[in-house]
Amino acid sequence: xxxxxxxxxxxxxxxxxxxxxxxxxxxxxxxxxxxxxxxxxxxxxxxxxxxxxxxxxxxxxxxxxxxxxxxxxxxxxxxxxxxxxxxxxxxxxxxxxxxxxxxxxxxxxxxxxxxxxxxxxxxxxxxxxxxxxxxxxxxxxxxxxxxxxxxxxxxxxxxxxxxxxxxxxxxxxxxxxxxxxxxxxxxxxxxxxxxxxxxxxxxxxxxxxxxxxxxxxxxxxxxxxxxxxxxxxxxxxxxxxxxxxxxxxxxxxxxxxxxxxxxxxxxxxxxxxxxxxxxxxxxxxxxxxxxxxxxxxxxxxxxxxxxxxxxxxxxxxxxxxxxxxxxxxxxxxxxxxxxxxxxxxxxxxxxxxxxxxxxxxxxxxxxxxxxxxxxxxxxxxxxxxxxxxxxxxxxxxxxxxxxxxxxxxxxxxxxxxxxxxxxxxxxxxxxxxxxxxxxxxxxxxxxxxxxxxxxxxxxxxxxxxxxxxxxxxxxxxxxxxxxxxxxxxxxxxxxxxxxxxxxxxxxxxxxxxxxxxxxxxxxxxxxxxxxxxxxxxxxxxxxxxxxxxxxxxxxxxxxxxxxxxxxxxxxxxxxxxxxxxxxxxxxxxxxxxxxxxxxxxxxxxxxxxxxxxxxxxxxxxxxxxxxxxxxxxxxxxxxxxxxxxxxxxxxxxxxxxxxxxxxxxxxxxxxxxxxxxxxxxxxxxxxxxxxxxxxxxxxxxxxxxxxxxxxxxxxxxxxxxxxxxxxxxxxxxxxxxxxxxxxxxxxxxxxxxxxxxxxxxxxxxxxxxxxxxxxxxxxxxxxxxxxxxxxxxxxxxxxxxxxxxxxxxxxxxxxxxxxxxxxxxxxxxxxxxxxxxxxxxxxxxxxxxxxxxxxxxxxxxxxxxxxxxxxxxxxxxxxxxxxxxxxxxxxxxxxxxxxx
Length: 900
Known about the structure:
Elements: H1 19-25, H2 33-42, H3 44-49, H4 54-60, H5 63-70, H6 73-91, H7 95-99, E1 125-128, H8 144-159, E2 163-168, E3 176-179, E4 185-188, E5 200-201, E6 211-215, E7 221-231, E8 234-240, H9 248-251, H10 262-287, E9 294-298, H11 305-314, H12 326-335, E10 337-340, E11 351-353, H13 354-361, H14 372-379, E12 390-392, H15 393-399, E13 403-406, H16 409-418, E14 434-435, H17 442-445, H18 448-458, H19 460-469, H20 472-476, H21 483-511, E15 531-536, H22 552-559, E16 566-571, H23 579-592, E17 601-604, H24 609-618, E18 621-624, H25 636-642, E19 646-650, H26 653-658, E20 664-667, H27 677-701, H28 710-723, H29 729-750, H30 753-769, E21 774-780, E22 795-803, E23 812-820, E24 831-838, E25 847-855, E26 862-870, E27 896-899
Parallel strand pairs: 1-2, 1-9, 2-8, 9-10, 10-13, 13-14, 15-16, 15-18, 16-17, 18-19, 19-20
Antiparallel strand pairs: 3-4, 5-7, 6-7, 7-8, 11-12, 21-22, 22-25, 23-24, 23-26, 24-25, 26-27
Pfam family, one: DUF3417
Organism: Streptomyces albipurpureus
Catalytic activity: [(1->4)-alpha-D-glucosyl](n) + phosphate = [(1->4)-alpha-D-glucosyl](n-1) + alpha-D-glucose 1-phosphate
C-alpha cells in the first residue's frame, strides 16, 4: 500500500554527537575529505546507501549505533577536531580579509543599510543564478551553468568573499535519465522533500516562515518560502513556491528546472529576480548580514532583479525609498550591477513576447510603480536584425549592468560581436563586455588520491591552500614527483573508474529490462591497462556527441587495435523537449550496445555530479569537439586536468586560450562559411581519428626500459603544475573581485541620490544634444615628417574642428584612433589618444579646435581617424551611451587617413 502522506522523522542525537548536525547542515562536507570520512565512520554501509549524503545518513542510523558512538572516545576526538576545523573555517580570516586594499573609501552609499564603509572591497555581493550545482545531495542544476555557479559559491567561501547566493528550489530538480531497451532517453522527476535536504527554512523572529509575494494578473498572487543552504561561509537562498497559500498553478512555478512554456518560465524568472531581491532583504534583516553593494546576475534569467531595485529606489522617502525617478534609479542600479553572459548563440537566450511581459509587470500586476514602457525598452531588440516585438533577457541584463563579461577570452570576443548592435558606431572590440575565464573548484573535483600525493610533497595544509588560493609556486612542486608515482596514480584512478563503470552499466541494463543471466559480459567491460577517453556533457547538437561515430569502421579499428587499443566512456543528457538530442543519445547507445565493441565503449545514463566526480579522475584523455566558437568555456576539461587528465579538444572556450602541446592536443577545425556542416564534420572527425591513432595512443603505449611512458607522465606533470593553478575557481573569483566587484562597489558608493539624478540628467542632455555634434575638418599641421614618406617613430600633429552644439568641452572627449589597417582600410589594432581643446572658447562659427600629436608606432599600412565621445567621471566605459561622432569629410581628407 502507498502512504497518503510522507514526512521525515529526525533522529535525536545524544548530546556528545550534537556537532554532527551542524556538520551535516553545512555543505562544506561536500568538498572536505575529513568531514566525509567522519560521516562514513558513523555507518559505512549506511553512508553508501545514502549516496554520501550526511542528512540522509543521520536520518537512517539506528539509535543503538548513535548511543555506541556517543561513548566512543576515539570517534568523539575526531568529531571535536572536525567541528573545530569547521568553526575556524567559518570565522577565521581568509584571502578576502587579508588582501583588501588599505585605502579607505568613505563616500556615502545610496543604500542606508550600508552606511559608510572602510574598505574598497564590497561589504557583500549578491550572486543570482537560476541553478546551483553544489552537491549531488542538492540536485538543483542541469549542466555547466549550475556547476559553475556552485563552484563560484564554494570558491568564494574558501576565499572569505562575503557572497550571498540567490536561486530557486525546484521540487523535481532537473530530471533523472534512464534508457529504454532500444536506447531512447527516458525522463523521471522524483519529488524532493526539502526536509530531507541539507537546507533550513528561513523563519521570522516569531517562528513563522518568512515569505515573499508577487502580484500576478487577474488579482492572483505568487507566494514563496525561502530555504537556506550553507555553502561553507556562503548562504544560498532558494525560493520555493510549493506553499499552501498558492493556487495549484502558482504552486507549480518552481516544480522543475527549465520546464513549462513561456509564461511558466517568465514566472520563474520573476520569482528569481524580483522575489530574490525581496528574499535577500528579509534575510539581511533577520540575520544582520551586510546588505549587498554589488549584484551579480549570472545569465539573463535573473535580470528582473534590476527592476525590483529600481522599484525600491523609486519608493517615497517616507516608505523607505529614495524618491528617485526611473532614469536616476536606473543609473544607481547599473553602477553596482555585474552581468555575466554564458551563451555564444542568440538561441540560448530567453526571449518573451512583449505583451506577456507587459501583462505581468504592468499597472494591475507586479511593479505597478515602474513605467512598463521603460521596462519593455530595456529588453527590446532595437538594433539591426533584432525582433522588436520580443523581450530579450540578456539584452535587459546588459542594459541594467554597468559591467559585463563573457566566460573565456574567445567567448568575450564572440559576445562583443553578438551584442554589438547595442553600441552602434563602435567596433565590436570596443563593446564594453570583458571576459573572465571560468574556473573549477579543485577540492570538489580533485580525487582524494591526487590530494594525498600533493600532500606528501608539500604538506596537507599547503596543499589545501594551493587548491583554494592557487599559489603557482606550490603547484610547481608537482614537477618533482617521480614518474613511477605519477603512473601509479593514473592507473589507480583508471582502475577505480573501471569498477564504477561496471557497477553503473549493470544497473542501467537492469533498468532497460535485462536479467542477470544476460549481463555476464559486463564484468569484462573496460580494462585498467587501456588508454581511456572520456566525453560527458549536455547533448545540444553543437557539442556533437556523435562526431566520433562519423566513420564507424575507423572507430572500431581504434577501439580494437591489437597493440594500441582505446576505450571510451560517454555520458550526457538531452533536454526533455529536444528529440534531436535524444536521437543523438540513441545513436551512440546503439553503437555501444554492439557486442563487438561494448567492452570498449560505454554510455552511462543519468550524468550528474556524483558520476562526474568518478569520471574525470579516471580518464586519461578528455575529449571535447564542439562546433567552434559555440562553446562559451567548457569546464569539464579543466576538471580532468586537475586530476592529471590530458585534453583532446577543438580550440574553443578555455582550451583556445590555454592550449599548449604539454597539456594535450588541438583538433583542427574546418572554419569558413563556405564549408557545409556535413563537410565540416567529415573533416574534423577525420582529424580526430588521425590524432588518436598517430599521436595520442602511441604516446600512451610507448614505454621506456622501466615500463613507463616517460613523455606521457611528463605531460601529466606539466598539466598539474602549470595548467592546474590557471583553471581554479579561486583564481576566477579573485578576478571577479578585483576587476568587477571592487569597481562596481566604488561606483555604487558614489551614487548617492543627488549624483544619480545628476548623471541621469546629464545622459538625457547628451542624447538630446548629440545630433548637433559633428567633426567639420581634420588636418595635419606643420609636422616632423611627410605623410607620403612616414617613418617609424615619426609624429603627426593633428588639428580637428568640432561642432558641439549645446554641449561643452567637459562633456566630450575628442580622440585620435590609429593603428594598422587591413585590405579594406579598417583599423585592426586601434589605439586611442586624446586631443586637447585649443583656446578659451569656440571660434566665430561656434566650432571648437582640438589638437594633439599622433605617433607612428607601426610599420606597414597605417591609418588614423578621429571621433567625439561623451565623457563623464562616472562612466565605466566611453561606449556606455552608445553615442559617437565620426568624420564625414568633404574638404580634401576622408573620414580616415591611410599611410602606406
